[in-house]
Amino acid sequence: MAVPTYHGTGPHSTQAYSAASSTQQTSSNQSSHNASLNGASGTNGAVEESVGDTKPPCNDWIRRMLFPRESDGQVQTELRKLPFQGMFDRLINYEQLQSVNSVSKQNYGVMPFIISGPPGTGKTKTIVETTMQLVHTTDIAHVLVVAPSEPAADTLALRLKKYLTPQQLLRLNGPWRADNEVPAEILSHCHMERGMFYIPPFAQLMKYNVVVTSTRDASILADARVTNNDLYHIETNMHSAFHSEGHHRPETLHWGALLMDEAAQATELDTLAALSIVCPPSAWPMGDNVAQPCFIMAGDQHQLGPRTASLHPEYSRSLFARLAERTAYSDHPLSRSRARPTNRPLVMTARMLPMLYPPFANLTRNYRSHPAILTFPSCEFYNDTLIPEAPVPTTPLQHSPLWKGRGWPVLFVPNSGPDDIERDGGGWYNMSEAKVARDVALHLVMNSGVAERDIVIMSPFAAQVKRLRAVVRTTRYWNRSGMWDVNIGPLEAFQGLESRVVILCVTRTKEKFVDLDVQRGLGVVGQRRQMNVALTRAKEGLIVIGDPKVMKMDPHWRRWLAFCQRNGLVQESLWSLGLQREYQDVGVLERALLAKDELRNNHSGRVLGAAAMLEDEMWTAGLEAALDEYDDGYHEEAESDGDDEATLV
């Protein structure tokens, strides 16, 4: 029998733990485990059916994670009680709390738990709180937390370090990452040797409660042979070598949970590396009294997906997006597609039971954007379910002469100046649009009290980004110094970020090239997810510059133009476009804004400052009035049930 050894070059760059006892048995078990993992990793129905036709292993956890069925869930027969209140983050809202409670109790079955988080709803906050609750209130002692990018993983580590010591939290980096790329605040939670990042020694690694890494660097743990499968076989084989009289099975697996933030931006292949770490061995029993690792993903499939060279959906679609379309999620009575607008938690009555425990949570409260900015994305992309929670600002920006019509901080600036292409096959740019963007930014700085650093100018075309930087930063304007602090970049660079004011340059004005743009995944016309990202970055002001003739070719942009037109949010008239009779359906947030404006008008002429004092009350009253029109009857049903119990969903 060989003693488990620690292999590597240098200090231990390619660490591996091996047990040579019962080599043939271990190799056979490993092959069986790998076969089940590889067989289930396909992305089409044929692969799923083929997996089901073969003789299933003892444990089908990986099939449940990649191809969950309704039968993998758990039926709810009793009304749930209010979730526990012992939160690490006291600012957790109800929907986030309900998500944390469901994962901690694991009452939804053995299948992925999806946290659907639109922009500004606190997905990362929910993941962090869930991690802390799993470690402190359940039997799970070791959690793996991943994100598809290094900055996103750094953000998770920065938030978790508020609650965990360097002995409890590890930010795992690959040796290829430079130390100056890592925030200084979390370097104490990283392991370094000889000036490079490394995986810690085995004994030290096994003590960490939480390991945070990127989906790519999760493979370091697989190479080090510290997956649940490897650790299980090492322990059982070592025990058998010393005690041949009987079979030993570990009481628990090392990794009890995998949490993935920004999951909609990771390809399925990216996700598989992390899944292989927590996947139980095929010999691990599947029973009611045997704990299985849980898999939680937070993301938003309506924003930008994984960045891949291929546009084929089989490769460019995330596991999060694919699972969201499975019937266990999309057809559930509480899914977002079946939800109705409300600013109160839904009420579940006994009449709705039995039903499957929802293996998902829908975050609805937006803490980023002004209601006028949020109203169209909520209605168009999220079934009118988002509720603005950010305080309505009362800064000079809100009273800027830029805003037209109802004075909401949303503005469309028509621009039909020709777009052009750089020589030698370069990208598309539009000089007239760049000058308009410069003038708008200059007005914001000089007349609206907005700092340069609080302005973002974005375009989906790289060549236009170069022109924008040249025009905005020229020394011919702004005291001959240029506006160098204005943040100018490609649209994709701002996913997950926010800014006080956003100026979007559509750029495209030649209609004949729109179809080609769509085929190549360029621009924001005909690109639903790019449009959503662009419209949801702004906090207090949104300006869109584009050609209405081109934008009308996209039904989503056409409806956004109609929203601007009916509320007068246009620099000049759009009535010639023929939109005055089209798309007049108004979302709940737009109705609330209209009701608020009516209340403000009714309060005009009172004592000085009365309107400002009543701002919050008017918004609340306007929202309540708008929601009354969408009342789905839950509250009335609860009241009419008499003795029938009711609980918050």
Automatic annotation (TrEMBL):
<protein>
    <submittedName>
        <fullName>P-loop containing nucleoside triphosphate hydrolase protein</fullName>
    </submittedName>
</protein>
<dbReference type="Pfam" id="PF13086">
    <property type="entry name" value="AAA_11"/>
</dbReference>
<dbReference type="GO" id="GO:0005829">
    <property type="term" value="C:cytosol"/>
</dbReference>
<keyword id="KW-0347">Helicase</keyword>
<keyword id="KW-0067">ATP-binding</keyword>
<dbReference type="InterPro" id="IPR027417">
    <property type="entry name" value="P-loop_NTPase"/>
</dbReference>
<keyword id="KW-0378">Hydrolase</keyword>
<dbReference type="GO" id="GO:0004386">
    <property type="term" value="F:helicase activity"/>
</dbReference>
<dbReference type="Pfam" id="PF13087">
    <property type="entry name" value="AAA_12"/>
</dbReference>
<feature type="compositionally biased region" description="Low complexity">
    <location>
        <begin position="12"/>
        <end position="36"/>
    </location>
</feature>
<dbReference type="InterPro" id="IPR041677">
    <property type="entry name" value="DNA2/NAM7_AAA_11"/>
</dbReference>
<feature type="domain" description="DNA2/NAM7 helicase-like C-terminal">
    <location>
        <begin position="360"/>
        <end position="548"/>
    </location>
</feature>
<feature type="domain" description="DNA2/NAM7 helicase helicase">
    <location>
        <begin position="93"/>
        <end position="162"/>
    </location>
</feature>
<dbReference type="InterPro" id="IPR041679">
    <property type="entry name" value="DNA2/NAM7-like_C"/>
</dbReference>
<dbReference type="GO" id="GO:0035194">
    <property type="term" value="P:regulatory ncRNA-mediated post-transcriptional gene silencing"/>
</dbReference>
<keyword id="KW-0547">Nucleotide-binding</keyword>
<dbReference type="GO" id="GO:0016787">
    <property type="term" value="F:hydrolase activity"/>
</dbReference>
<feature type="region of interest" description="Disordered">
    <location>
        <begin position="1"/>
        <end position="58"/>
    </location>
</feature>
<dbReference type="InterPro" id="IPR047187">
    <property type="entry name" value="SF1_C_Upf1"/>
</dbReference>
<dbReference type="InterPro" id="IPR045055">
    <property type="entry name" value="DNA2/NAM7-like"/>
</dbReference>
